[in-house]
Amino acid sequence: MKGFVRFLIPILALVACFGVTNAQNVSNVYATQAGQAIHITYDLDRAADISVYVSTDGGEHFKKLYRVSGDVGKTIGPGHKTIVWDVQSEMEEFVSDDVKFKVHVDGNAESEWRKKLRVETQEKKEPKEAVIPKEKDIVLPYSTFFTLNMAYSPLPQWSFGFKVGGMKKVGWYASLMTNFNFKGWGNTFQEGECYGLTGESKTIRFSAQAGLVVRPCKPLSLLFGVGYGYRAFLYQVNEYWFDGSPRYPGGLCYPERTYQGVDLSAGLLFDIKGFALSAEVVTTHFQTFEMRFGVGFCVPHEKKQKSKN
Prior knowledge:
Low-confidence stretches: 1-23, 189-194, 245-255, 304-309
CATH topology of the largest domain: Porin
Mean pLDDT: 76
Structural class: mainly beta
Strand order of the largest sheet: 10-11-12-13-14-16-17-18
Largest sheet: 8 strands, antiparallel, barrel
Shape: rod-shaped
Number of domains: 2
CATH class of the largest domain: Mainly Beta
Helix content: 10-25%
């Protein structure tokens, strides 16, 4: 295509003087070179369907151009317009000393143009509503959490422990709580025995649970746990410790403060910028209650996307 580059500029100078049209509403046809393409400009005074033709013999014969873009085709509105012809994709060689272009009106598109304007104006006045993704489409990452816990019951009694788990929409956790006192576990007063109380007392608390995490939305998760719990109020008798259950007839009667069996819990977990905060209500065999609070961290694990390379 060296010939195209060499002869194009003087040829287009002739086009600027002799550009022709076949309709009264097209005027000022002019062509210029832009790299390996030709830009054909024209003025249109009313909407129309536009096509463009080229002649290499001074206007004796015209050939319709197809490798064109810009203001050409159906429903072109009025104004100053530009058509871009990709010469190399349509002609292997473009060499001539008498070239003319013709911008042709194929039909009156005034009504279609006005309809198009009304639609565009209406869309500007009434912008489309933003699409809010449904909650089911929101993907929550898998997260691991760990908290240190503290619990209090009106026995009065304090206990401490930890909770660890993982969650997405649904997850799991395991927890362990104790007050670190195990001496006297399971020792009960016997019927018919005489005991010399020293007046000293203390408590035992132990809880081991496994639970379910339900995560309806971030940052809120629901906690439901079940396991084994033991809670006792101990009395010192001589050098031994005994719990106050069961009561025995004929003698001193001590209030029953020993409970063991199923430990149930329910509460909330909040994941706020990597920090985990929890609050739960715990019952041992539905006979006693305590409040449990936890603070820790939560680490999300994003899935790594495989590279296409």
